[in-house]
Amino acid sequence: MNDSSKRILIVGLGLMGGSYAKALKSKGHHITAITLDRDSVDYALSNGIIDEGDTEVNDGYVESCDIAVFALYPHTFIEWIKNHGRLFRPGTLITDVTGVKGSVVGEVQSLLPEGVEFISAHPMAGRESSGIINSDCSVFKNANYIVVPTEKNTERAIRTCEWLGRELGFGRISQLSPDEHDKMIAFLSQLTHCIAVALMCANDDEQICNYTGDSFRDLTRIAKINETMWSELFSLNKKYLVDEIDSFTEQLSRLREAIDKDDFDTVKSMMIKSTERRKTFDKDRRK
Amino acid sequence: MNDSSKRILIVGLGLMGGSYAKALKSKGHHITAITLDRDSVDYALSNGIIDEGDTEVNDGYVESCDIAVFALYPHTFIEWIKNHGRLFRPGTLITDVTGVKGSVVGEVQSLLPEGVEFISAHPMAGRESSGIINSDCSVFKNANYIVVPTEKNTERAIRTCEWLGRELGFGRISQLSPDEHDKMIAFLSQLTHCIAVALMCANDDEQICNYTGDSFRDLTRIAKINETMWSELFSLNKKYLVDEIDSFTEQLSRLREAIDKDDFDTVKSMMIKSTERRKTFDKDRRK
User: Fold this and answer.
1) Of B58, B175, B220, B240, whose CB has the highest number of CB atoms within 10 Å?
2) B13 neighbors B41 (Cβ within 8 angstroms)
């Protein structure tokens, strides 16, 4: 362990917790983990993904860590902090990977003892599979990492959280407020998952995979979805998500009317706009 | 040139014509090409993609080919056949890459001289860029190739068209009637392009690429779209496309209502269905 290495506790060794552990262990940090599933602990230990692991809330890990990363479902995260948050010693920094922020950040901040700071973050990388066995920190490469501070956060915590994003290998670190984050995520992530689910539900022909090209494959990759986690995320962000579904449906309906009425000037103008906007993504490192 | 090699004429050296030329030239066939753009001919010749090329309708190429592949916009294809179809000698097989079939296949078949057979096909592979400079026959690997015969086609022509699909490197060769094809393509390809366009039109925030993950990138890759070609394809397949947009919108609206009313049993059941259906794609060679 070198001088700059930290003791990092990861709570929840699923796909994302496992990917964090892999990335941070490879940087020389000391990684402890608490997760319900014994097999996940055993897998992580025998594959050198963590240094120590427990299926119980191990007081030693909690009290001795510099940074704790929570990779749990939102309600489980809040319950955990309610039950065990008092164990953290002052000076500990807590962060998370939760997909919605407004209903989580304020509550977690209010539950923690004096001197223990929670700075929220959202790693915009994942996979349509779950479990530590599918964890892979290469998905962080060039991906976006959003730090989501509130007015209660210190500059030091924000800087440490940004450092963590870089340490994990993310390509771009940005900042959004919890509200900005939830609105953005309703559009970029939750709406796209709704579209993929609706698209797969719209056709019951079992032969479609014999005829499809890449476009349908790309649009439905995320139709393989963890219904428990995503239902919770949708529920917690319902206000923004319903708005974003409506605004997308309005554009699709506009396109449909134009096609139906042979108004191909409108069709073309929408295509030109979508092409221009999508091109800005290609100036980015990823396509 | 070995015994089994053929003289293949490609009309239209764009992204798809160029990719056909590359694949077929590498198999030892003699490739001629007719295309409007001099730069495309020069590029193809200097890069060894074709054996001979012309910007004019070269009677020699037309009269001497075994197989002619048309990689043109639908109306340009029909116009070409009207003006020059009589030049083909009996025994020549004509095929295409056109994205809609019902409004094309019957008309082209009726325009050709006795003994010249048109067997339609749709290679389900492409790229969100255009021009021979972006052509790439590796996109055919493991992709789907749909032969679209009518009752006028001979068994010999169907077999030759299937052979061509294999020769190009496609992974699976299927057959659909023109109507089945157009309905299938309205769902698998045209609807997905409509969704991508509507999604990019639904948000004018120029910063979204700073926050996005792979799901939004995947869903909008095809939002970079050639507005002239796709408007023509949408127009020619309007009946099926409007139906498919409606049926997708109905599912999305069902999901929206369930989220709005906290009916997460329905949300979960749709997610479970989408997950099950999408998994059948993974039994396939491509994800």
Assistant:
1) B220
2) yes
Choose the closest CB to A200 out of B210, B212, B277. Answer: B277
Distance from CA of A225 to the nearest CA of B (A): 6
Residue type, B138: S
The answer to the question of residue B212 being in a domain is yes
pTM: predicted TM-score of the whole model, two decimal places = 0.91
Q: What is the pLDDT of residues A2-51, one digit of tens each?
A: 558 999 999 999 999 999 999 999 999 999 999 999 999 999 999 999 99
- What is the phi/psi pair of residue A156, to 5°? -60, -45
Among A112, A144, A176, the domain boundary falls at A176
More confident residue, B142 or B246: B246
The ipTM of this complex is 0.91
How many domains in chain A? 2
Shared domain check, B196 and B151: no
Three-class secondary structure of residue B78 per DSSP? helix
Per-residue pLDDT, A287: 41
For A230-243, write each residue's pLDDT tens digit.
999 999 999 999 99
Q: Give the residue on A whose Cα is nearest the Cα of B264.
A: A231
Mind telling me how many Å the CA of A233 is from chain B's nearest CA? 11
> Which structural domain range is residue B200 located in?
181-282
**Cβ neighbours of residue A285 closer than 8 Å, sequence gap 6 or more:** A142, A171
Q: Looking at chain A from residue 160 to 189, which residues have their Cβ under 8 Å from any Cβ of chain B?
A: 172, 174, 176, 184-185, 187-189
